[in-house]
Amino acid sequence: MGAAVMMMSSMAIGVSAYTLRFTSGAPSSDNAITTTTTVMATSAGKITVKSTTFAVSVSGAYTQMKCTSHKTNESNVNSVGTYYMNYKGTAVPKAGTPVTVKATLTNYVVSKTVSSKGTITA
Questions:
Q1: Which of 4, 9, 58 is nearest to 30 (CA)?
Q2: Is the pLDDT confidence value at 64 over 70?
């Protein structure tokens, strides 16, 4: 059974919400496996992901967070909490610079049902 990849893009000043979901057997149009969002960098020097909802029916799934516009470590969100993606070397963007983050549900098929929501701040 194939899952549709749903791409949503948004531009926000400093903070942006994300929502990903997968339900086995649901129409592919109901599943949101990937989202890409762009936020404006602040002076924080890192990307902060606040996971407000993470629910799975069978453990194993997680949301992979990856900055596609700057060099950072990746972050794997697998529960409610705060996660950080630190800029590497001299890659820290100046305040007001666009920062793009891609969130992708990973290992979701074995979990049957996954819901992942939160916010991204640069």
A1: 4
A2: yes
